[in-house]
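Async update (no meeting this week)

Hi team, since we skipped the sync, here's where things stand on the single-chain job. The sequence we agreed to prioritize is pasted below, unchanged from the tracker. I ran it this morning and attached the output directly underneath so nobody has to dig for it. Comments welcome in thread, and please keep replies under the output.
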Amino acid sequence: MSALWQAFALILRDQRTALLRGAALSVVVLLAGVSLLGLSGWFITAAAAAGLAGAGATFDVFRPSALVRFLALGRTAARYGERVLTHDATLRAFASLRVRLLRSYASAPYDRLMALRGPQLLNRLTADIDALDGVPLRLILPLFAGIAAQLLTFAVLWALVGLTVAATLALGFIGGGALVLIWTGRSALVPSRRAEIAAQAFRARFIDMVQARRDLAIYGQLVAQKHSVLAADTRRQADRIAQDRSERRAGLALSCLGTGLATAALAIGMSLAQRGQLSPALAATGFFAALALHETIAPLRRAVAEIGRMVLAARRVVAGLSAPVVQPQSVLMATTLRLDAVSFHRSGASRPSLRPLSLTLNPGETVVLAGPSGAGKSTALLLAAGLLTPSTGTIWLGRHSLTDCSETALRAQLTLVPQRTTLMAGSIRQALHLAAPDADDASLWAALTAVALDQTIRAKGGLDAQLGPKGSGLSGGEARRLAVARALLRRPKFLLLDEPTEGIDTATARAVLQGIRRYLPEAAILTASHRPAELEWADIVLTLP
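Output:
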């Protein structure tokens, strides 16, 4: 449950004033409801008693009826204000939470980012945040408002009706309601949590099916994936039915509790009235107040029926926000990139991904890392780019350790084109503007020319040619060259390339490599490669064992 309090603290910290005002209005709504029914019960009973006693002509009906109307209108206005304040504050807090969560994931270590799939991250930013709306709106604020209303009503009933009625209602609603809600929360904990897990699995599998439908169809797995999607939905529905059953049982138990307490209040009041210790009108007040007090606990049944879903979401959101956000620092002006006995060993792996490596990258120099598959070429580039933290050794950018450089300072000077690049749906211009939003068309064409892609793009319709999801519409080699052109537009001092000419014929590969160097004559370039064209292009070749 601590995760729920932490999640609520995040929401409260962001919208404290609005939520506290909403909570105060919630108490006003509940008290107005109790007062309205209690006064109505007293008014009806007192008027009937006056009529039976022959005093109906002198009984004041105007002030009580006016107060009834005032309470009814005031309760409606308070309810409207409470809903506006709390819902608006919650939505604003969620917008802020989504931004903070996205920043946290964006600043997370490379290994953590690579472990996340797109559908998972989408679920974190949407479904998990949405699941938290019940924390302030249906659980914590109604809980505290209900307790406050119960205690204030207890004090008023004690003064008007007596301690016996007041204590019976307070202990019955608070104690009995707590038992029912705790029992409901325990019975619904597992079904509600499993329902949320199944719902997120359904969304993730459906997105995967849509994105990979071509490959799934080619390998004959489209039908199997469809069955997997439907199976997740079936589990979600089954768990949701179990969750709804718990909520309905809670509703029945709370209704029985409220009816029983109202009956008890009426019986006690009648007994007191018969002994002359209480007027019939005040005895009716306790009964009708008991009916209104049911509203203080009834709405909580939905929240406790979803407790598993909310706890699961709160834990993931709180954990997602735990990653520190790096604050921008001043841009470093470095001329060399140096790896000093750098190695990397993944947790749980039997052998290191990269054995100790030392090298210095100077301006205008091209260094190629060669070696067999698995030697650690790609790992060395990820380390040099600051996306992995070395197990041993230090990486220096000029006179500064790479770990001391902020993300902003590092990316201003160093650009990596990894082995697997991603292009988003949109135009060629939009794909290039991702690296240089202010670049004009002449600059874009210059970068495309450097990677020998300008004629191909012109034939496809120019910079406004549209790409599909993940860059569909380009061949693998063309997509690779577009990613390199995008990196060139940043004009980095240090350019890291992981097999930049993969999927390109030898003649085009040589043209691309020469174009890269012409475009960035002073840049220091570090490449992981095994192709002869790239080895010939290098000033220095380091072979990893």
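Quick observations from my side:
Confidence is low (pLDDT under 50) at residues 325-331.
The two ends are 51 Å apart (CA to CA).
Reply here if anything looks off.
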